[in-house]
Amino acid sequence: MSHDLDLLFRPRSVAIIGASDKNPWTRIAARTLQDVGFAGPLHLVNRRGTPALGLETITSCAEAEGIDAAFIAVPAVALGDAIEDMAAAGVRYGAVVTSGFAETGGEGAAEQARLFDRARALGVTLLGPNSLGFTNFVDRVSVGAMPLKLPVLERPRVGLVSQSGATTVLIAQLAHQQNVALSHMVAMGNEAVIDLADVIRFLVEDEATKAIAVFAESIRRPDAFAAAARAAAEARKPIVMLKVGTGELTATVAQAHTGALVGDDKVFQAVCDAYNIVRVGSLEDLAITADMLAAIGPVDPARGFSLISISGGACEIVADRGEEVGIEFPPFGTETLAKLSGVIADFGAAHNPIDITGASMSRPAIYSGVMEAVGADPAIGLIGVIQEIPASEAAASPMSEAALSEVARGFGLAGVPGMVIQQVLKPITDHGRAVIARHGLPLVTGGMDHAVRAIGHLYQWSRRVAQTLPRPVPAALEVPPELVGEHATLAWLATRGVPVIPQKVARSRAEAVAAAAAIGGAVALKILSPDIQHKTEVGGVLLGLEGEAAVGDGFDRIIANVKRARSAAAIDGILVSPMRRAGTELIVGVARDEAWGLVLAVGLGGVLVELLQDTQLRVLPVSPAEARDMVGRLKGAKLLMGYRGAPAADLDRLAEAIAAIGEAALVLGDRLDALEINPLRVDGAEIEALDALLVWRHAG
Amino acid sequence: MSHDLDLLFRPRSVAIIGASDKNPWTRIAARTLQDVGFAGPLHLVNRRGTPALGLETITSCAEAEGIDAAFIAVPAVALGDAIEDMAAAGVRYGAVVTSGFAETGGEGAAEQARLFDRARALGVTLLGPNSLGFTNFVDRVSVGAMPLKLPVLERPRVGLVSQSGATTVLIAQLAHQQNVALSHMVAMGNEAVIDLADVIRFLVEDEATKAIAVFAESIRRPDAFAAAARAAAEARKPIVMLKVGTGELTATVAQAHTGALVGDDKVFQAVCDAYNIVRVGSLEDLAITADMLAAIGPVDPARGFSLISISGGACEIVADRGEEVGIEFPPFGTETLAKLSGVIADFGAAHNPIDITGASMSRPAIYSGVMEAVGADPAIGLIGVIQEIPASEAAASPMSEAALSEVARGFGLAGVPGMVIQQVLKPITDHGRAVIARHGLPLVTGGMDHAVRAIGHLYQWSRRVAQTLPRPVPAALEVPPELVGEHATLAWLATRGVPVIPQKVARSRAEAVAAAAAIGGAVALKILSPDIQHKTEVGGVLLGLEGEAAVGDGFDRIIANVKRARSAAAIDGILVSPMRRAGTELIVGVARDEAWGLVLAVGLGGVLVELLQDTQLRVLPVSPAEARDMVGRLKGAKLLMGYRGAPAADLDRLAEAIAAIGEAALVLGDRLDALEINPLRVDGAEIEALDALLVWRHAG
């Protein structure tokens, strides 16, 4: 279900239920409201009416008016009453910190289900239980109890949502340390009603939020998550995600604990690829990448990156690491080089990344001059300047002030987006924040290592933003119930636009000879029987037959072989198809993932796919552009590009064929379990499915 | 050359040459001596005897006695005089900050060579020029001018040496921020005399230094570097290195600048593999990894790692990332599980990494109890505990104090080495340092992301510590000058212990027939001519011949073919060898790298090596154990393990064959340019070189 969570996340009036001096959660909740500067009415609810936290209390929500949302910190046994009270008073939203439910096992889960079903029936929508709630830094309100004090930073723009409460706090602290301004931070808790997908949807619609940072342990509702991810992609609002449980060890442990099969991470990666979700591997990368994407937004993927630094070492580190993550550092154009030599005399061989040398310490105008020249280069679309932000008055100097002033001016002149990069990961202090604000600097990020990975993600995300989203899933069609076996499957695939090898069914020796003559050249014969899957094993395949006698004898031999091996098998005839010279063989398969639905896999046949698992996955539907992208990402892609004198594959036609296979699988609908084309033969522009296997979900 | 740098790096008396109030370098140099607590005599040398930096000056080193080392900060034109003055006064060591030499191009390089050759002739050994010098935190002395103020930390143990002055300062600041106690920091400058290898050798011998952190741009003397790296490996003192210029872009730029070909990074990696040098990709990883290796030293690679945390999210992040870098998290033994359930009641399914849950907040003894139980598990050899170190009094709490106290106690009880890991990368403040000291905590590191990579390196380095070092290079032998061509090469390789296919030389049709009969079964015939390299092109190869007539006719046909195609070619006969059924084919090559000497490459034939560059490199010599390691690291290694029903290769014999090829290449000595065995055929225990190509350095 999808929820309108506006009143939950932007309440004008807040209650704390269970408020008491002895209840630390309620103390933190009240203090957080104060810290964040909440200006609306706050009501403390205490069953006995005992004053708490230095304020008067009420005994029921009904004693106050217009409470939009409540923070509920009552003992587990009192949660039912609290919900009834909220409902009676018309309080429709809340966050429940109370623990002791699903996270403790079966009994707790049952009690959780009972209470939250009741809440739902009463029209009360709750975050949690076992949730630290949330803080909304944009509207300066909190319904939660995260034990940390964070000032509201300027330009809040990163929405943080996490399935681990402790980790929410940790990421928020880290974000503050790195001057990453959060718009919201939301700790999901047990997700009895509101889940990750709901919060992502809210953040997609929130105007202040420019990027969504997600710490995820498990996706409870894949469909809802995919829909929320699609909404984010349509809004061009990046989701940056750190997902745990991707390794074998964590997956095994999770399975042992919850009994739930953790989905294959390769499939989840395919989902992320489909919806342009950026995946990172560390908490630092989560905060820094989300901040960069929020600050910069999509860049022109056709225009590369330029780094400007006073340190040659920094230039080399960024170039080395940047190359690894696919950042382009275009060489400067002639015009740019001329401008640069006007800025610094001995800049004859200026190259990107550009080392502006120690000269810029005595002549800081070199910064702005170089930035202006580089920004005007049509090959450059993004600029990074290595510069340290002083952490204290003592660390500042007239030299660093002058440099920062010229850097700020340079961003104005450059005409392309940019950022300041500190060389190593270190805190941006309050003093540093003031320096940034005073100079009007854009994004300040770092260290180089994290910044480079984030820039790599920024470009990758921007490239995908430019691509079309997967089309919505086409409606399932009625398919003939007799659609079974190679021949029927290939024939049906042909009607769906999949190029397939011509096949003729011969029911007699004479028909086989005639079919072969019509085809011309050598042919292959294969038994056609609904009862036989492995044709070769029963002597049901003969290859390279040419001429009336060979084909006719072949027909007879196959029939005899099959009758001998499988006397009971029904024989529908023999398939006659042309022999093809060896080309490159692909395996294109569609399989159903229990969580994510149909997943398309593309691999190169032979040792590459068997030994190196060189396959690319995407959740369906897949457009031809995506299919082409999949092929390009195969490690063995060069095999298709004219390897060893073989003709280069027509990649457009190949992409269309792969996309058509995906579409065909989709229209087969819910009954489909798997569809495999093996091989899809590629020989220059000749692309054909040579064999197909279709598996229905329920036998028959 | 190798230098005894003891007096340079541990001077008891220091001079600053060029001292003047207007010379900022000398001001910084004097202040650094004060900051570091230098207790010995300091002499300021000023040509005119003008007082400087608030002190009297002398006009020549000769006016003082017993100066061990000098910091030289005179203008470039005065450097020659300063050197003469030092020599005359018997000052034998110094660091030259003066710039304007090789880093400015050809003229500067010539002047540098002139001055430093003269210094060498005078017995004066200098660091630099263009060097910020060094600080020695162990002996509390500095001959340098790094613009930063660092207190001396406890237990200085990481020696830092860097080829970039700015980066030295940056890494030192970072190290201080992360509580990484440097023993020395050395900025190399232009390396006119003393180079990286010399400083590494000094640090290998320095007792306080437990690990060596290197920031490198280029290796000037590969032989000396390899010798220093060998010395470090023999001393089991890890070298951790961040080397820039590894990417295509930086290599191209460096080449354009210096005209020097930057070595292939794959070859440099092979050197690092040989001498157990740990390579990292970021400044943060450099400091954190070196610190961990210094603090912990080699661990038992057979015993895995256990993480203990109050946060399930942290456990999962560490498990996921740890798996990626090859860290083993062994499951706990039955005895351990029993002990753990004694520590926490509901620990039935405790697993590694171990989430000790929020219960440990109210009962901190859980920490030490769990650590003791886990440390006693024979499968565990290293423990990490996630715990935050408070940055200030305000951030501390009775709860965190109690937890830290129990963690410290736990390390005492665990009986295995361990560390505290902070979850994200954040500074360890002076307050934090005091907390660490008060509790007597071992290594405190973090964040998790960096710590996990460092632990991965620690295990990898420890595994290699356990392996034997490459043996010294065997002496080159006299080899027959006629050693040229496939047959002679294979025959000679056979004398060196390389298994080769039997070959007989037939000089007549009759000899060919007799040879084939002696071999039995089908044979291959190949032309034997010193003038023909590509035998197939001239019709010089026939395969699968069996029987007198076929072999005899084949002999005649090849002779006729070759005479037709190459009438001038000398024909020494025809090689007769048995036909072999297809096996797995390896390519084993030895090629000379201009910097590093002979490098052995092993790859699997076919698409894997051609398309995916699936090769492993090592510098020679290579032991059979290393050769086996190389084979195991091939992506396609499974092809040798009994793939698709093929017999599994005898990997021990294969490793011996590869090592023998490497040894053979070494004894061929300096004249060898390349030796390629293609293919080395592997069919179960049958391993044979089928063809060999030998290329001498100078024609003939």
Report on the structure:
The structure is a homodimer of 700-residue chains. The first copy, chain A, is α/β, with parallel strands linked by helices. Chain A folds into five domains: 1-147, Rossmann fold, CATH 3.40.50.720; 149-297, 3-Layer(aba) Sandwich (Rossmann fold); 299-466, Succinyl-CoA synthetase domains (Rossmann fold); 502-578, Dna Ligase, domain 1; 584-696, D-amino Acid Aminotransferase, Chain A, domain 1. Helices cover 39% and strands 20% of the residues of chain A. Chain A is built from 23 helices and 27 strands. In chain A, the strands form five sheets. In chain A, strands 7-6-9-8-10-11-12 form a seven-stranded mixed sheet, sandwiched between helices. In chain A, helix 14 runs parallel beside helix 15. The longest helix of chain A has 19 residues, at 448-466. The model of chain A has no long low-confidence stretch (mean pLDDT 91). Chains A and B meet through helix 5, helix 8, helix 10, helix 11 and helix 21 of A and helix 5, helix 8, helix 10, helix 11 and helix 21 of B.
Brief summary of the model shown:
The structure is a homodimer of 700-residue chains. By secondary structure, the first copy, chain A, is α/β, with parallel strands linked by helices.
Oligomer type: homodimer
Strand order of the largest sheet of chain A: 7-6-9-8-10-11-12
The two chains with the largest interface, and their residue counts, are: A-B, 59 and 59 residues
Number of helices of chain A: 23
The CATH topology of the largest domain in chain A is given as Rossmann fold
* Net shape of chain A: flat
Under CATH at level 1, the class of the largest domain in chain A stands as Alpha Beta
What is the average per-residue confidence, as pLDDT of chain A, rounded to a whole number? Answer: 91
Give me the CATH superfamily of the largest domain in chain A: Succinyl-CoA synthetase domains
Q: Give the number of DSSP strands of chain A.
A: 27
- The N- and C-terminal alpha carbons of chain A lie at a distance of 34 Å
Cα-based radius of gyration of chain A, to the nearest Å: 32 Å
Low-confidence stretches of chain A: none
Residues in helices of chain A, as a percent range = 25-40%
Structural category of chain A: alpha/beta
Domain count of chain A: 5
Biggest β-sheet of chain A, characterized?
7 strands, mixed
In CATH terms, what is the architecture of the largest domain in chain A?
Answer: 3-Layer(aba) Sandwich
Q: Strand portion of chain A, in percent?
A: 15-25%
